[in-house]
Design goal:
mainly alpha, Hypothetical protein af1432, about 70% helix, elongated
């Protein structure tokens, strides 16, 4: 199993504090500076993290201040350029980092007094936890993928989603974040990973399953990510018009790719998790709305043809097995109910037979006549029930024959 990208103890404290206090610029900054200082073998990152810890312990929770402090003079000691800083953090943070660099000759001089003019907000007693938030195997891989490729916005999305999904479980008992991470890994495994596509993958359920709003997504990730996540998120009105929803999703290459891999993951454990009625509804949705659009998407988005081909084949294979499972379950349930009904009828027939004999002994001919007609009705009903059992058994036998198997 891959190990996580190592942060110093100070870096780990800052990462945890940033996540706990929603300091998302600071979160990206600590990874950004740690990676680039490590790249050139410079130990100044320890001085930066110490200064950042000092600010946090003094109640400084201003995201822009902490991020700009971590970025102070990074262009002097690493291969990072001012343009790189602007692209990742924006012009405001880049300008703050420059202003701070003009105050100090070296990062070793960073302290609370020299930052006073830049601090915009403080609060008492900011707790610094000693442990990083744990990541599963897929999340560790994706974190490395993000840092190695310089996908800092995706790195932010990973940590953001992990916090929002913290301790949230899916129907199968797995962590919610594991599903989203698995979708991203599936996209990467097909060789079609882009930062935008992976951000949509890790955030694709965030609007449906958490209290996060579209405005928050736009503030953190921009308008494009907001539009992507909104497009792939089901809304109440989509229940009445699923065609509109799926047309929108499969009208975008990124959303179509995410939805295809997402459905792979959903159907893979459908039999273990879903009740029969829910499974049948899902099968109908896949047959009617998803598989046809995946087929069309192969021609619409030729660069993703391989992904749609493999996903469609996998989903269709699982759906065929699920359909067979539902048929067996329905037949078994029908046979069981018919057999139980037959048993009840036989018991009723025995009771009516005893009552009929007693009526005859007493000479109660009217009662005997009524019981006799009722007994005839029970016998006819029992025969019909037995025929139903035989019919269900015959259907089951046909279903499990090898020549009817989809693998034959």
């Amino acid at each position: 199993m891959l190990d996580r990208y190592a942060l110093s103890r100070g870096g780990s404290l800052i990462e945890r504090a940033a996540i706990d206090n929603n300091l998302w610029l600071t979160l990206v900054a600590i990874h950004f500076v740690s990676y680039h200082y490590l790249e050139v073998g410079d130990s100044r990152v320890d001085l930066l993290t110490n200064a950042c810890q000092s600010l946090l312990r003094h109640g400084v929770v201003d995201d822009a201040t902490l991020a700009s402090m971590l970025l102070c003079r990074i262009t002097d000691h690493t291969h990072v350029t001012q343009r790189d800083v602007q692209e990742v953090f924006g012009s405001v943070i880049a300008e703050k980092a420059i202003a701070l660099a003009q105050r100090v000759a070296d990062v070793a001089e960073l302290d609370l007094p020299c930052l006073n003019g830049l601090i915009e907000s403080q609060q008492p007693n900011v707790a610094l936890a000693s442990e990083r938030y744990p990541f599963g195997r897929d999340m560790v891989f994706l974190e490395r993928l993000a840092i190695d490729n310089g996908w800092w916005s995706f790195l932010l999305a990973l940590h953001f989603a992990n916090k929002q999904y913290w301790k949230m479980k899916r129907d199968d008992g797995s962590d919610e974040i594991e599903h989203s991470a698995s979708v991203c890994c599936g996209i990467n495994d097909r060789g079609v990973a882009t930062e935008r596509r992976l951000k949509e993958g890790i955030l694709h359920d965030i609007l449906e399953n958490t209290i996060i709003t579209s405005l928050e997504l736009e503030r953190l990730f921009g308008k494009d990510t907001r539009a992507d996540v909104e497009r792939i998120s089901k809304k109440p009105e989509h229940k009445a018009s699923p065609a509109v929803y799926f047309d929108e999703v499969f009208g975008s290459p990124d959303s179509a790719a995410v939805k295809a891999v997402d459905q792979e993951r959903v159907v893979s454990n459908m039999i273990q998790v879903y009740l029969i009625e829910r499974m049948e509804r899902k099968i109908q949705e896949i047959r009617q709305w998803i598989l046809p659009r995946m087929k069309d998407a192969r021609n619409k988005f030729p660069e993703l043809k391989g992904l749609f081909f493999s996903s469609r084949y996998l989903i269709r294979s699982v759906v065929e097995g699920a359909e067979r499972y539902c048929q067996v379950a329905r037949i078994s349930a029908g046979a069981f109910l018919a057999a139980r009904k037959t048993t009840r009828l036989v018991v009723a027939m025995e009771e009516d037979t005893k009552a009929l004999a007693a009526s005859i002994r007493r000479g109660a001919w009217d009662e005997a006549d009524r019981l006799s007609r009722g007994l005839e009705s029970l016998v006819a009903e029992a025969k019909a029930s037995q025929e139903e059992v035989k019919l269900q058994e015959g259907q089951f036998s046909k279903l499990v024959k090898f020549e009817n198997s989809p693998l034959n």
